[in-house]
Amino acid sequence: MNEIRSKIGLGIAAVTVLAVTVAPGYAQEAAAPAAAVAVDKTAATAANVDYVFNTLLFLMTGFLVMWMAAGFAMLEAGLVRTKNVAMQCTKNIALYSVAGMMFWLVGYNMMYPGDDWIVADTIGKFLPVTMPDPGSDVANGYSTGSDWFFQMVFCATTASIVSGTLAERIKLWPFLIFVVVLTGLIYPIQGSWEWGAGWLDDMGFSDFAGSTLVHSTGGWAALAGALLLGARAGKYGPDGAVNPMPGSSMPLATLGTFILWLGWFGFNGGSQLALGSLENASAVSKIFVNTNMAAAAGVIVAMVMTQVIYGKVDLTMALNGALAGLVSITAEPLAPAIWQSVIIGGIGGVIVVFTVPLLDKLRVDDVVGAIPVHLFAGIWGTLIVAWTNGDANVIVQATGVAAIGAFVFVSSFVVWAFLKFTIGLRPTLEEETDGLDKAEIGIEAYPEFGQGSQRI
Amino acid sequence: MNEIRSKIGLGIAAVTVLAVTVAPGYAQEAAAPAAAVAVDKTAATAANVDYVFNTLLFLMTGFLVMWMAAGFAMLEAGLVRTKNVAMQCTKNIALYSVAGMMFWLVGYNMMYPGDDWIVADTIGKFLPVTMPDPGSDVANGYSTGSDWFFQMVFCATTASIVSGTLAERIKLWPFLIFVVVLTGLIYPIQGSWEWGAGWLDDMGFSDFAGSTLVHSTGGWAALAGALLLGARAGKYGPDGAVNPMPGSSMPLATLGTFILWLGWFGFNGGSQLALGSLENASAVSKIFVNTNMAAAAGVIVAMVMTQVIYGKVDLTMALNGALAGLVSITAEPLAPAIWQSVIIGGIGGVIVVFTVPLLDKLRVDDVVGAIPVHLFAGIWGTLIVAWTNGDANVIVQATGVAAIGAFVFVSSFVVWAFLKFTIGLRPTLEEETDGLDKAEIGIEAYPEFGQGSQRI
Amino acid sequence: MNEIRSKIGLGIAAVTVLAVTVAPGYAQEAAAPAAAVAVDKTAATAANVDYVFNTLLFLMTGFLVMWMAAGFAMLEAGLVRTKNVAMQCTKNIALYSVAGMMFWLVGYNMMYPGDDWIVADTIGKFLPVTMPDPGSDVANGYSTGSDWFFQMVFCATTASIVSGTLAERIKLWPFLIFVVVLTGLIYPIQGSWEWGAGWLDDMGFSDFAGSTLVHSTGGWAALAGALLLGARAGKYGPDGAVNPMPGSSMPLATLGTFILWLGWFGFNGGSQLALGSLENASAVSKIFVNTNMAAAAGVIVAMVMTQVIYGKVDLTMALNGALAGLVSITAEPLAPAIWQSVIIGGIGGVIVVFTVPLLDKLRVDDVVGAIPVHLFAGIWGTLIVAWTNGDANVIVQATGVAAIGAFVFVSSFVVWAFLKFTIGLRPTLEEETDGLDKAEIGIEAYPEFGQGSQRI
Amino acid sequence: MKLLTAIIKPFKLEEVRTALTDLGLEGMTVTEVKGYGRQKGHTEIYRGAEYAVSFLPKIKIEVVVPAAQADKALEVVQTAARTGQIGDGKIFISPIERTVRVRTGESDEAAL
Amino acid sequence: MKLLTAIIKPFKLEEVRTALTDLGLEGMTVTEVKGYGRQKGHTEIYRGAEYAVSFLPKIKIEVVVPAAQADKALEVVQTAARTGQIGDGKIFISPIERTVRVRTGESDEAAL
Amino acid sequence: MKLLTAIIKPFKLEEVRTALTDLGLEGMTVTEVKGYGRQKGHTEIYRGAEYAVSFLPKIKIEVVVPAAQADKALEVVQTAARTGQIGDGKIFISPIERTVRVRTGESDEAAL
Ligand SMILES: Nc1ncnc2c1ncn2[C@@H]1O[C@H](COP(=O)(O)OP(=O)(O)O)[C@@H](O)[C@H]1O
Ligand SMILES: Nc1ncnc2c1ncn2[C@@H]1O[C@H](COP(=O)(O)OP(=O)(O)O)[C@@H](O)[C@H]1O
Ligand SMILES: Nc1ncnc2c1ncn2[C@@H]1O[C@H](COP(=O)(O)OP(=O)(O)O)[C@@H](O)[C@H]1O
Question: Tens of pLDDT along A104-129?
């Protein structure tokens, strides 16, 4: 009496005249009064069409964003040296798992406390998530589970960003402890200020899909870590020299970037938060277009610039350019006209080409370029919202950037410092030299030597 | 007079008052009478909203499950040694193709015979599938094609599982012949007992998305093959020694695992079999959440345990842990609360960490850990259904596990034995030593020696 | 006052009696009069159900086709030699970016000019695309943005095809300039003849998803390039000898093929152009099934044939076989019965096995087999439409193939020749020998030598 | 001192290593090589065209030994590496004039 | 016997192999190496910072020949490997005192 | 002429190369190898079973030098490659009878 899959007994039970739910374009007009209506949720399908569409949007775009976890894993595996590749794979699958755990135990309700704040509009409530019974999930215009899933993968993204910057020189477990705090407290607290209808939202701050809330947050946490952790051994010479350490695999880095690009349609498109009306469906579509164009512009600008400045195209900069374009448009992927998206994303590419070497000059060792891509382009994207979105104000935007930046940087710094002076962050020099795969994972990424030299 | 794509002539033809189809939450209440209603299927869109949603669910989750074929290919390519990687790629794309062919020719109608059994409730009818005309596909609450596609990719998954266990020492064509029998007969026959409304379903057995029907089935078939095939040459020393043979590429194995994780949202989510109501959309959402949490728990448990027991995290165990978590929750991803999913999946991780070495002790050579992941965690997941699903009964669950296990193991054993004593299963020792890529495929996975040593 | 994500204020505002939009199965009955109806697009969700479904189809299948860009990148990275892998990655991410840019600036409106032709039914209008305001996007039965996105990724696919054939011996920037012309002019002009309701469409030519418009077009452009560019140094010996140059990575090639197979469900399924009715949803489902079966048949045929002819299975031919099966069914994935799809796709596999060596005999150097797969199977697929689609006529089909072939080949030839005699297409022999990664990209695909030999 | 260079089948590496260690020789260097000899490689077909895979994977072991132990070392390597099949490999002995241990600067036999 | 070691450009491998085979020398071992010489490598820029790619890919061929054939072998390798461009490589000749065929135990020239 | 063969820790390659260049030696060939010596490798656990990773990654540098410069070269390599830790490696010196530059046919010291 359980599942009878397909063909058997899946019938159409009734024909009814239809009552339908209506929701005006959410993201744009979120001030619309929340008039929960008691519709008969099992009797009439169409009565819940909007609900189903919105839920479907969260699920579909949610799995696209989940897929970004694989994108970060591949990008980072490609950009670290062979001896640290297995470690990077381990960190990425672990952080995605930890983020899910923490966002269930603490994060979600802290980020979206409703009216239930510990400190009003600043720190949300502290409560694990429980899923309502599927049949009685009528409180919002979508299923609670789909929303949790969609928001959780955003939280995981934030942690992925940190992983790349600190690669090749951080021990596994201290990193994962940081991820626990980041995904359980730091990310949801700052997130509640805006998406949880906290004080930044009250001020009129605008960050559609998270240039600041997700990307800069990851970037600030990474920057704090990079400062406390120091550069990889040998990266900077005593005489101001910068020693590049090319990554192990360009095709993996490229694959990772394509995965991220694909996932970003979910990241930005799903942030419309609703699909079930002409206006929302069109908005999601426009977001897809703008998202794509910003990324394309980022690639082209980075390619042309590296060709002109260095005489050759730098593939890793082109990949970073795509991501910087995507981060730049993330704060406002709906309002811009296409040509504006091209400019916004293109400037993301410019930022990458200039700030990657700049960080090296400052001796901040960012293995994969996450700080330029996520932090700098994230700030740019957030400020430029005021250009295309009439409701946004550049001062307010800057306030949001600064407030979240200060909070995330300081709190991350404290956590990193605590870890550094207790269990320690760095492996020994010898372990770092030998590679973290050997020291911490016990298997090399490509363990074979001599084709067939393993037993028979 | 054919396609005129976009912008041209795609109009809105009419506005009508709406009659709508209704279907109560299928999976949970599949006993609902199948009252096929003759709605005018071309005239009014909304009259078929439910139909469209359900069909869309099958297509979307179906392509996610199809993508799992790539996941298995990458996971296995990463976990076999370099000299067998091209072979593993070949086997995986071939088995997916063969599964589609057989599920069309025989499998689908044998698995879902409706009232048309050869042996009542035990062996279904024997008939290739034909697609109804799109305009007249009203028999069920979804399109026949979408359902076939969704069920077919499940069938292919079963075959993928076998491929991993038997890697590095089985000839290509005998393996594919086994896949023909597995996907054409063994899988659909046992599947009909439950999902085809056969005798196990009558008994009240419950397997939501296939911990037993898909995963254990693949596992039993793999186990039978492994016993008859024997271990890889050199894997077990004469003195009880186990000689690990680390795989070729950790990033490919990681990529494969992420692909499988992503695909599993389709695997479990689509098994709700319906989307077009508040209840169904919420159920699918809850399934996504539980699926994710079980996998996350599997990863974390496997990491912590290998760290504690062996002093280092074992990445391949963490990857297996994710998959074991997923398999564990597959029999019932809807009923559990989140914390229950975490426990169910976490115990999947425990199973992996303990049974991978156990199998080695028993000298059953399972290259990728498919038996612990799919068979052992599949049994666990099926039995534990009784904990969270009030309609399930642990005795009945055990009966289903045993019945399907016995049938699949014995029938697989017979087929493997037949192949072994006719055309033979194993390559010569020399071929195995040289690698199957050379012996059977004629190209190595990474054929270059010395960068640029190929002609110019 | 911006986004308030989740849980807050997303209410259900009203319950209304429903008026619904209706659209008969578009692709099949596109002659249906376009009666645009002024529905209140924000008030009632269900009034726009059809609109939302169609838009969703474009977005979902569009992101699947976008993902094919990664598939081409991985396939080509796997099939070129190590020394050209980074170049191939660069070309693929660049061409996808350029295609988006050009399809915005010129392509889309040139391809779908409505009534606004420069030369009637032959050359469309010249105008960048602007996105309508989301709330007022009612002209068609779907969102303009979603359609642009879906059509754009088709345009990018065309360029991807060219990239593979010409690999390992073409300079980056001349290639990208060709892509500018291909995606901005050549592709949209020929596309307008059929999908833009131009003269080929008037004649009754039928190409459902683009066997000719996309795949052969890419193939012809590649062939023109290959002829002007010449073969890779050393590929053909003076004595008629063919020197195979095996690719760098079979698992990457396999991954790429799986990605393309997955993407193809979007490619063909989305080309139904509508989802929101029983008939359309069923049609999309049937397309999924036929698409899958044609690919599976292509794999099996290529495997059996290479086994029989050469004594071993050729993995790269099996991968090409999948793609040739897919290309073959693309011109008509809806009309055939399953067994017909199997035959159509299987003959695609035959074409690959015979024409890959044939091209070598003709000394046309096609690195990845794109001409057999996309051009030859594309022609086959277009002609065979007449078998299964009663409205198609083989003479008309041949006319379309010839007209588009002549136009694309000649115009591409002119562009390639122009580039050849101005800035030049080929790197020096030394650069080619050293690999384009070194010459043009400045980083090797796998830059490390000696594990750990990079500074510390 | 003598340099003993052995080209062997890859899967024999572990046995050869053990044999040398049993002899008290506690240092060696191995390299992934490809070889060509009586065992000739083979022809493969790639995308319909034949090509010769001339070289087969082998492992090269280099071990520097005191002159007095060279014959013994050669013997144990030969025994350990032997399968009796074509392609088993070769052992070469050549003179080494000087050896230095990098870490300590010790010289010659003391450095081995 | 002599060991002839040739460092050559990778794409010349097939020609050198054929030339040696034509001479009746039916065994050799090749290794993937990187080299540095007059041909100096080059500077690349990675993510905005310069770095030297000091070593270029080369192939090392090792072939042990009867002393009498060493000069002839050297000559054909030089001819086959030559492009006239910088970086063509070097050939070294050094003494081999003993050779053993693992499979049969045959010694010295009989083992080649 | 002498062949100086140094087995060193991989990350010392750049220092050794610089040291040799400073000495005026402008050619060398490097190979990725694995080594075994006093520094013994270690045991790892893979999927619950122990296995020995016997060999550690090393780099082999081969440089042919005029006999007169051999001692000096050996000295600078030893200095540059030294960390003082176990596993620093070994340097071997062996005789080279003839050297030819492929490109020009120059012989012996002129060919270096
Ligand atoms: N003259 C040679 N110089 C250098 N290496 C050789 C020589 N002859 C054989 N080898 C190496 O020894 C390996 C085995 O030699 P082969 O002739 O195939 O086997 P066998 O010695 O058993 O007849 C070859 O693959 C090659 O690497
Ligand atoms: N003294 C040397 N010792 C060992 N290998 C050398 C030496 N000199 C050159 N080589 C090898 O020979 C290759 C070619 O040498 P190079 O000086 O660049 O070219 P050419 O001999 O044509 O002037 C180098 O890349 C290196 O591998
Ligand atoms: N007898 C030998 N023959 C060849 N190579 C050797 C020999 N002894 C050591 N090596 C090489 O030198 C490396 C370092 O030697 P090891 O004994 O570990 O360090 P140390 O010389 O500092 O005691 C080894 O990994 C191996 O590659």
Answer: 999 999 999 999 999 999 999 999 99
* CB-CB neighbors (< 8 A) of C451 in chain F: 10, 32, 57
Phi-psi sector, B442: left (phi>0), alpha (psi -120 to 50), beta: left
- Pick out chain A residues at pLDDT < 70: 1-4, 6-47, 449-456
pLDDT of residue E51: 85
Neighbouring CB atoms inside 10 A of C428's CB total: 11
Tokens of E78: 């030089």
Residue with tokens 């007169």: F68
Instruction: Give contacts of B 286-325 with F, CB under 8 A.
Output: 310-312, 314, 316-317
Closest CA to F13 of F62, F54, F67: F62
Model pLDDT, residue A235: 94
Q: What is the ipTM of this complex?
A: 0.94
Contacts of B449 in chain E (CB under 8 A): 30, 32
- Whole-angstrom distance, CA of residue A451 vs CA of residue C171: 34
- Centre of ligand 1 from the C-alpha of residue A294, in Å: 58
Residue B110 in contact with residue B122, Cβ under 8 Å? no
CB-based contact F46 B246, cutoff 8 Å: yes
Give the residue carrying structure tokens 């009715």.
Answer: C277
Rounded distance, CA B36 to CA A13, Å? 7
**Nearest beta carbon to residue A442 from set F34, F44, F85:** F44
Asked if the C-beta of A33 comes within 8 angstroms of chain E's C-beta atoms, the answer is no
Q: List the domain boundaries for chain A.
A: 54-454
Measured in Å, residue F58 CA sits from the centre of ligand 3 at 10
Ligand 1 pocket test, candidate residues E3, E5, E21, E29, most atoms within 8 A of CB: E29
pLDDT of residue E11: 84
Q: Which CATH number fits domain A54-454: 1.10.238.10, 1.10.3430.10, 1.20.140.160, 3.30.420.40?
A: 1.10.3430.10
CA-CA distance, E60 to E68, in Å (whole number)? 22
Contact E95, E67 (CB under 8 A): no
Q: How far lies B340's CA from each of A146, B293, B337, D12, E69, in Å?
A: 18, 9, 5, 51, 78
Nearest CA, atom 8, ligand 2: F27
Do residues C284 and C272 lie in contact, with contact meaning Cβ atoms separated by under 8 Å?
A: yes
Coil, strand or helix at F30 = strand
Neighbours of chain A (3+ CB pairs under 8 A): B, C, D, E, F
Spatial distance between the Cα atoms of A47 and A141, rounded to a whole number of angstroms: 12
Phi-psi region of D84 (alpha: psi -120 to 50; beta: other; left: phi over 0): left
